[in-house]
Specification:
This protein is an alpha/beta fold. The protein is about 20% helix and about 40% strand.
């Protein structure tokens, strides 16, 4: 495996140091990786003598993407990687790191992936689109979740449908539609269930609902979830995909969420089960 991209978040110095350590390790093996960054950055933050390219450009023809950072780094990279069918190996230099397979202290194991000694963990993704006055004005896809949330102090009125049938309606701070991968993120914090990432489901979780009967639902991945916004008195709401603001929503807008045609391929070199990871990250083990 020769066409390898190292991707880092330029806003964290520790990410750079870990990235450079892996780069040196690979150079000693006779492999010259491409270096990429997630966000535009002042060139003064780059190590001297090393060039960094935009991720979209670097991934053309790549065989493996190695991400350095937390889950946010992998989430930001996942869409470009999925478009190019490039598997991702995550090295956790952040906090939780549910998506990463390696921790910063065992970064040398990246060589196992370079040598082809790894397994692929395929994760379903979401497709989300916004319809306004009968026209689709926005569409994109995500690995973790699509979140409809208020953008002002007032609550938002929401009606949720599955394949055209009403599931729930309530007033509150918003609604999360998550994949099993995203079940350990915002959805879990809002009271949603933890779902095995190998499953294919849509998890619908209200956010601070002003209705005790508003509960989380686990739906088939073949379900089309439609979120309709009620009157908001000239206020707006926001659709966020994987934590990034994606579209502003108005009264009457419809957000449709379905299973995406894309998947994220996560590289695994460690033989850790999902239960072991959850126990470690959430400190639920004894």
């Amino acid at each position: 495996m020769n066409n390898i991209v190292l991707c880092t978040n330029p806003r964290r110095d520790l990410n750079f140091r870990c990235t450079l350590a892996v780069r040196e390790l690979m150079l000693k093996k006779g492999i010259t990786p491409l270096n990429s960054i997630l966000f535009p950055a002042d060139e003064t933050v780059f190590p001297e003598g090393i060039e960094f390219s935009p991720l979209r450009e670097a991934l053309r023809g790549a065989q493996l993407l190695i991400c350095f950072g937390g889950d946010g780094t992998i989430l930001h990279a996942a869409r470009e990687a999925a478009r190019n069918a490039v598997p991702i190996l995550g090295v956790n230099v952040g906090n939780m790191g549910f998506l990463a397979d390696l921790e910063a202290f065992d970064y040398e194991k990246v060589i196992l992936a370079v040598e082809g000694r790894y397994a692929i963990d395929r994760r379903m993704m979401l497709h989300a689109e916004v319809e306004r006055d009968g026209q689709v004005i926005f569409s994109d896809f995500a690995l973790n979740d699509a979140v409809v949330s208020k953008s002002a102090a007032r609550i938002v009125k929401i009606a949720v449908f599955g394949n055209g049938e009403i599931i729930s309606h309530f007033s509150g701070d918003g609604l999360i539609v998550a994949t099993p991968t995203g079940s350990t993120a915002y959805s879990m914090s809002a009271g949603g269930p933890i779902v095995e990432p190998s499953a294919e489901n849509l998890i619908v979780t209200p956010i601070c609902a002003h209705d005790m009967s508003a509960k989380s639902f686990v739906l088939s991945s073949e379900t089309e979830v439609t979120v309709e916004l009620g009157r908001m008195r000239d206020k707006t709401a926001t659709l966020s995909l994987d934590g990034a603001d994606s579209a502003y929503l108005l009264s009457g807008d419809k957000v449709r969420v379905t299973k995406s045609k894309y998947t994220t391929e996560l590289v695994r070199v460690n033989n850790r089960s999902f239960y072991e990871i959850v126990s470690q990250k959430l400190d639920t083990g004894e």
